Input
Amino acid sequence: MTVPSPAIVQGLPIREYLLVGLISLTLTFLLTGPVRLLAFKIGAVAVPRTRDVHTQPIPRLGGLAMYLGICGGMLLAHQLPLLRRAFDYSLDPIGVLIGGGVIMLIGMLDDRFELDALTKFAGQTMSAGIIVLFGIQWVLVWVPWGGNDTGPSGSLVVLDMNQGGLLTVLLALVLINAMNFIDGLDGLAAGIGVIASLATCTFSFHLLSQTGNDVVNYAPALLSITLAGACLGFLPHNFQPARLFMGDSGSMLIGLTLAAASTSAAGKRLPAEQGPSNTIAVLSPLIVVAAVLFVPLLDLLMAVVRRTRRGLSPFHADKMHLHHRLLEIGHSQRRAVLLIYLWAAVLAFGAVSLSLFDGLVVVWGMAIGLLVALLVSAIPRLRSR
Output
C-alpha cells in the first residue's frame, strides 16, 4: 500500500470551495447594510457630477464589506482540513489579505477625501509589491516562438525574481486601474468581477484536475472563489438602482485580487509537453487574463488615447467610456450593464474553454456568441435608422 504525498489529496474539494464562496457571499450581503450607514456617518458619499449617471447622492464604501466577506471566506477555508493546505503550502492567501487590506484602506480614504491620482498610484504600487513579497509572482512564461527547428516549437522563458516581480506589479496596476475605470454604471464592476473570478476559478479547478489535485494549485481557486462570493453578495445592493457604491475601495480590491489569482494560477505552471499541440493550452492562463477583463482594458486604452490626444491627463475624467456610449445609442442602464456582462462572459469562458475542449469548436462558439452580442448591442441604433 502506497502512502500519497502530503502535497496530493484525492478528489476535488468542490463542496468545500462552494461553502467558502457561500460564506463570502453571505457575509458581504449582510455587512453591506452596516457599511452603508457607516459611509453616511463619515461622509463617504458620491455627489452627482457632470460625468456621472446617478442623480442623487449615494454612499460609497462597499469595498469594506467585500473585503470583510473575503476575510470570512479565507478564515473558514483555514479551518477546513482540505483547504487549509492552501495556507500550509503557500503564502498567497495571506499576501492577498494583507495587500488587499492596504489597497482597500487607500480606497476608503479616496472614497472619503478624494485622493490625488499620484497618491493612489503609489498606494496601488505598494499593494502590488506586498503580494510579490509573499511569493505571488511570475516565474515561467511560455512564448510561442523560439525553440529548435527540428524539435518542439515555442520556448519557456524563466524569469528571475526581479523580472517576475516587475511583471506581476505591472499586471496588477493594469487590472486595478482597468476595474477602476469601468466602475461607472450600477452593478458593472461587481458583475465583471463575478465573471472574471468564476472564469479564473474554473481554470484553477482544471489545473487541480490536471496535476492530480496538487495543493500547490489550491491557492488560485481559493482566491477567485472568495472574490466571486464577495462580488455576488454585493451585487444585489449595487445593481441599478444602487443603494451603495463599491467606490475605489472595492474596484481596486477586485483588480488586485484578480491579478493575484491569475498570477498564482499561471505564473508557476509547467507544461506537460513542450510541443505545438499544447501551445494554446499553455497560453490559456494569459488568454484568461486578457479575456476576462477585455472590456475594462479596452475602455482603459480608449480613455488614455482619447485624453492624451486632447492634451489632457490620462486620469482626466470624462463621459465617453464604453458604458456611456451604450447609454448614448439608446440602451437603458440595466441593459447596458447586461450587455457588457454578455461580452465579458463570452470572452472569459471562451478563453478558459480553449484549454478544456476542442479548439475549433470553441472558436466557432465564441464567434457565434460575439456575433449575438454585437447584434444585441446594435439594436437601438438599427431601430433608429
Q: What stands out?
A: DSSP finds 14 helices and four strands in the chain.
